[in-house]
Amino acid sequence: MNGYHLQLRRTHLLHCTLTVDLTIGSQVTHPRMIAPRRCGSLPTVSAMKSTPAHPLGGAVRESLEAYGGTLRALLLVALWVFRHVLACALMAVLLHSRASWSESYTAQDAVSHIGEIGTVCGLVVSSKFAMRSKGQLTFLNLDRPYPNHIFTVVIWGKDRVKFGRPDLTFAGKRICVWGLIADYEGRPEMMATDPAQITFP
Question: Which pTM was predicted?
Answer without folding.
Answer: 0.52
